[in-house]
Amino acid sequence: NAIFLPASGLRAKGSKISFDGTCGYYSTGTLHSAYFTRALEAKEGSRKVTNSNYRLYGYTIRAVKANVVE
Questions:
Q1: What distance in Å separates the CA atoms of residue 70 and residue 62, rounded to the nearest whole number?
Q2: Nearest one of 4, 7, 3, 2 to 60, comparing CA atoms
Q3: DSSP β-ladder status, 36-43 and 10-11
């Protein structure tokens, strides 16, 4: 299975979009604290889950449907 995650960048502190075309940042549903979220950072050839991303950053939210097998 595969999923396409575009390099959508992020919007920091209400500013313009940064890193578009270079990195993709995706918020997860897991909070790290009141102000921080866990997120996936994806670049060509690497990916990592981070804990210290401000929730106010404009990270992409990518809806993914669960594949339920009965």
A1: 25
A2: 7
A3: unpaired
Cα three-residue angle 53-66-1, rounded to 5 degrees: 90
What is 6-70 written as a DSSP string? ---BEE-TT--EESTTTEEEEEEEEESSSSEEEEEEEETTEEEEEEEEETTS--B----------
Q: Which of 5, 19, 4 is nearest to 58 (CA)?
A: 19
pTM of the model: 0.62
pLDDT in tens, 41-51: 888 888 888 77
Q: By the 8 A CB rule, do 32 and 52 touch? A: yes
